[in-house]
Design brief:
about 15% helix, 6-stranded parallel sheet, 7 helices, alpha+beta, globular
């Protein structure tokens, strides 16, 4: 069995966390060290074990159910941005406009992460009793996937709070979908692909959304997925939610400056298309913007991006959410923070229209997204009056607009009705000239799609084989019959000192949302350019697989 631990990274940045303790907090439930007691005179407390060899245990206590405003809501600028941190007023999720319609009730969200403190007073009210699962050695099979040691990462607990921390309980924060139901899987505690695949399909007839703030390392290298992972995604899209398809939401990465070139001083930029776990059909891939609506320094581009959501930027303004020991932190960051916000938005959409398929969800997110940073030169016209940016996808998720569109949406169908067209394999076998006098020479090859019944593309897979001593030298793009260009790979220096640290383009699959709504028939052109001096190669082969209706 392969171990994904060498590939998987929690999508958070290293900013220091600041715990916010609420004085006089009366909780539904209290997390504590072993030996906690209940002096309230209420029902006998229940102690929950975190497993063998653990520092922590958890005690459920009977306490009054509180109602009232959530005191940290004013700090949650991602929900209501009033410029409180020097940001741009209104640069947020537009969540409050959706809340007048729904808070996400009736929708189950499965958070797949490391340990999740499901006993947190802002999470436990939304927990589906008995539905969670621990995969960690020493706790495997338990319905309590809670942290084991004091130093355990708070990542999963922070993620869960952003999706569905309870509202109107007079404590803490509010999740985007504060009445959605929580299921927690700590499959990243082992990082075995078989555990992750199990979590991605567990209770798929009941769980609607699988929230994943993790991905491959940000190092510029190609990271192919394990076959068991791809099989799990395919199965979930086909059979999840009684055929409507499971919704898979993944972080787009934090690799906007994973390495600085010692010779030029320039940042080396990763690309979401180098992560084989997220560049495939059926994944909602999420990017981040700061409190001014701009791409942060860690922003990672890619043609696979669907939408962004707010997170930290260049200044120390993070996101306020739940953390360990029943407390709160104000500096959660990266696409780890933006991704669960989009999961929350999707929960709101499904709450008003449970019949939405996985295909519907992606289209609605794109059509309802708000175009942020409007003067950025990367915004390109897309089909149906939309715009696409390789830094921002279709823009920032807009909860209010997404819920409105979802409520009256006519479904395009699920996996069973999705059309597919494949091109024959092209084998141009063209040499890739080396850089000469600082000038690079693009090499292009075209193929024609004819007789395809797809008039509205939903996703394109592009497969490339190119022989080169250092694949990081290659820039790759594909243009459609509508003259829309997907930037698939940028030239970069990859971490690692031996051989081609970037990995080989050996029938590598790229994915693109860029062509959403276009027609498939016509000439498609791939262009490969050697951007680095000293090595040569060949553009060997390529093909397309187009999905749509």
């Amino acid at each position: 069995m392969s171990r994904a631990g060498v590939l998987l990274l929690l999508m958070r940045l290293g900013a220091a966390r600041r715990a916010i303790v609420l004085p006089g907090l009366i909780a539904l439930i209290a997390a504590c060290l072993a030996g906690c007691s209940n002096d309230s005179g209420s029902a006998q407390p229940i102690t929950i074990s975190a497993g063998s060899n653990c520092d922590l245990s958890y005690t459920l206590t009977q306490s009054p159910v509180l109602t009232g405003p959530d005191p940290l809501l004013s700090d949650q600028w991602h929900l209501i941005n009033t410029g409180q941190n020097g940001g741009t007023t209104g640069e947020d999720l537009r969540a409050t406009g959706a809340w007048s319609v729904t808070r996400g009730s009736g929708v189950r969200v499965a958070v797949i992460d490391d340990a999740i403190e499901v006993t947190h007073p802002d999470l436990y009210p939304n927990l589906v009793q008995g539905a969670s699962r621990s995969y960690r050695n020493g706790n495997r099979g338990s319905i309590w996937p809670v942290p084991c040691i004091k130093a355990e990462d708070e990542h999963g607990t922070a993620v869960a709070g952003l999706v569905l921390a309870r509202d109107d309980n007079a404590i803490g924060v509010v999740g985007v979908a504060s009445r959605a139901s929580l299921v927690a899987y700590d499959a990243l505690s082992t990082s075995y692909d078989i555990d992750i695949a199990d979590a991605l399909t567990r209770d798929s007839e009941l769980n609607s959304i699988y929230q994943n703030s993790w991905g491959s390392p940000d190092d510029g290298s190609l990271h192919p997925p394990d076959t068991v992972f791809t099989a799990a995604i395919t199965s979930g899209l086909l059979t999840g939610r009684q055929g409507k398809g499971s919704i898979y939401v993944f972080a787009g990465g934090n690799g906007g400056c994973y390495l600085i070139d010692a010779d030029t001083g320039k940042c080396q930029v990763d690309n979401s298309n180098f992560d084989g776990y997220i560049n495939q059909r059926g994944i909602v891939t999420v990017c981040a913007v700061d409190d001014k609506g701009m791409s942060p320094w860690y922003g990672e581009p890619g043609a696979t991006l669907t939408v962004c959501a707010p997170s930290s930027g260049s200044k120390p303004v993070g996101v306020t959410t739940t953390t360990l020991n029943g407390t709160y932190a104000s500096s959660f960051s990266g696409t780890s923070a933006s991704t669960p916000m989009v999961s929350g938005v999707i929960a709101l959409m499904l709450s008003v229209n449970p019949t939405l398929t996985w295909r519907d969800v992606r289209i609605i997110l794109a059509r309802s997204a708000r175009r942020n940073d409007p003067t950025d030169s990367g915004w390109l016209p897309a089909a149906g009056g939309l715009h696409f940016n390789h830094k921002y996808g279709f823009g920032v998720a807009n909860a209010q607009a997404a819920v409105a569109l979802a409520s009256s949406w006519s479904s395009v169908g699920g996996s069973a009705s999705m059309k597919t067209c494949e091109s024959p394999l092209r084998t141009p076998n063209l040499p890739l000239p080396d850089v000469t006098d600082g000038i690079s020479t693009p090499v292009s090859d075209s193929l024609s799609i004819a007789g395809c019944a797809i008039t509205s593309i939903e996703f394109v897979e592009i497969f490339l084989t190119a022989s080169h001593a250092y694949s990081g030298d290659l820039k790759v793009s594909v243009s459609s019959p509508a003259a829309a260009v997907s930037q698939l790979a940028n030239a970069r220096i990859c971490k690692g000192s031996s051989g081609d640290a970037c990995g080989a383009y050996n029938n590598w699959r790229f994915g693109s949302m860029r062509h959403l709504g276009e027609a498939a028939n016509g000439n498609w052109t791939m262009t490969v350019t050697d951007m680095g001096a000293g090595d040569t190669g060949r553009f060997d082969a390529w093909s397309l697989k187009i999905y749509g209706r």
